[in-house]
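From the pipeline queue, job 12 of 40. The input is one protein chain; the requested action is below.

Action: predict structure.
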Amino acid sequence: MRGLVGALLAASCACGARSALELPTREPDGGAIDRPAADVDPDVPCANGPIPLRRRASVALLAIDRSGSMDLDLLGGNGVPRRWDVMRAVLPDALAALDPDVSLGALLFPPVGAAECAAPQALDLGFGEARAEPVARVLDAARPSGRTPTYATLVQAERQLQGATRDGARVVVLATDGGPNCNAALDGDRCGCATGARVPGQDECRADPSLCLDDQRAVAQASAMAARGVLTFVIGIDGDRRPALVDALTRLARAGGRPNPRSPRAYYSVQRPEDLREAVDAIGRTLSACTLLAAARPPADATLSLRVRGALAPRDPSRVEGWDWLTPDGAELALYGSACDAAGGGAEVTLTASCGDR
């Protein structure tokens, strides 16, 4: 496998916390309701001092696009290396460096042997540690085929993560090379018709609306998942740079709550094999170092200060630079951007409550 990786690489040549976090609460069945929930407990009396934090290892699900366009090269042509071959070679090798405390599972979409718009119904690889070789076997046994049912895949990914038995922050790592489609309910006369291995004309979408760009539904699902505490990283194989697809990937990444802080496109762009390795490395560092659990919920009237290696990090509800709560109960938080970068290697992260003049 490492030899293939080498061949492919050669071929490629401060802030206060007084306001409530406007997140939907959860019904017993996991659904969302409309009323907002505070991120703090107003009944807890305010007390000056630190709130202990501990790191929380992640449970991550790889959602891997195996649509027909994955048979193209990284720039969208018919050359080599093919996107699927890059995925097969680089992804398992990069996963070997993943923190052993991260529990990882995988699913392919559309499922192998299913209809071209079929939604995944089960994991291709169950959750566990040391998943590099098992992921390699899953990828080696599959070939590119079908379309890109991203919305249905995110729905299934959240369901599988909710059912994971191991405790930990839950995230999706969505690796895809194009815009979502597979929504036959769209209007083929009006929809954006720019998905698939080759750009279809509007007549093709009129004849088959499932070719329409289903970006709004996929983005809404990623946003709803983030509100429920399931965040999504997006790795986009985007070498052909069609504007509609770049826009869809960007909005997916922002809605998912884990944007790439080093790119205005917000997703992790892959145009060379080494880009995929770098994306997995960056995401892996985030999974192992940047999700924390508070020992106690801060009171409603406290002002909070979070520091990483002694440097103040602002609270950022946009989740790009600083920190933000992940859950409505104000117990789990995540670091973003340079704050996340600084948290590696066991760096000290402190959260302090200040109650003003009392």
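Job complete. The first helix runs from residue 2 to 12.
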